[in-house]
Amino acid sequence: MHKGHLALVRKAVQENDILVVSIFVNPAQFGPHEDFKKYPRPLKKDKALLRAGGADYLFIPSARQIYPPGFSTFVDMDPKLTGVLCGKFRPGHFRGVATVVTKLFNIVRPDTAYFGLKDFQQCAVVRRLVRDLNFPLRLRFIPTAREREGLALSSRNLYLSAEERRRASHISQTLFWIRKEIRFGRKNLRRLKREAFRRLKSKVDRVDYFEIADPETLEPCKIVQGKMVALAACFVGKTRLIDNVIIRISK
Q1: How many domains, the chain?
Q2: 5 has catalytic annotation
Q3: Which of 89, 119, 142 is the last residue of a domain?
Q4: Which residue in 2, 5, 33, 93 is the catalytic one?
Q5: Are residues 124 and 28 in the same domain?
Q6: What's the CA gap between 218 and 52, in Å, rounded?
Q7: How many CB atoms lie within 10 A of CB 168?
């Protein structure tokens, strides 16, 4: 649990009578060469933070409980939404997301579910899932929580050295820069993306993608529109980080 998760907890406590928090490191979301085994699991600390934050229940299922022997039912979605951006580089990831979210919704039966916008593609997937499968609940998406230098809060930030953390802050700086440029009137999105990619490439170790997309469909924007999202995924050292900013253009 980091401050981004706790921001979701605070908002949920304010808006509801009972709060259930789930902690589940979902094996179905991780590829064969990803960091499932070393993903942070400081359960004692997490419990203390949630107790202090006002959570009423903590649901911590095992992988065997969520995926019992013989489990064979998964939720697949249109690859136009799940096969792009992070889905392009993490095959099967959003299949795992859609499946476990469906299971958690069916187990807990929430009236409202809270997600952080740092994982923007995940939010888009969950929004479509709820709509398409007629889940009787409301979704609340909470803005990205950031460290002082702008780095989006993530469990994976624990992997970063001080030098890597400094370089990682250029991801958010580049996103903020492109939002400012578009708001100031620059309209050539192709040129802006090329510039952003060069900025990132000079500071991080690998850029998986940098895109400006429609926030609902995640299709790349060819021209400036009223609402867009700029998204990036980069490696700093061996750590993969994602971030995004929403761009609104006043008429």
Answers
A1: 2
A2: yes
A3: 142
A4: 5
A5: yes
A6: 37
A7: 28
Domain identity same for 79 and 110 = yes
Model pLDDT for residues 120-156, shown as the tens digit of each residue: 999 999 999 999 999 999 999 999 999 999 999 999 9
pLDDT digits (tens, 9 = 90+) for 18-67: 999 999 999 999 988 898 988 889 999 999 999 999 999 999 999 999 99
Residues 239 and 126 in one domain: no
Same domain, 97 and 121: yes
* The pLDDT of residue 251: 63
Query: Which strand (E) or helix (H) includes residue 137?
Result: none
Q: Do the Cβ atoms of 126 and 120 come closer than 8 Å? A: no
Rounded to two decimals, what is the model's pTM? Answer: 0.95
Q: How many helices (H) and strands (E) does the chain have?
A: 9, 7
Q: How far apart are the first and last CA of the chain?
A: 39
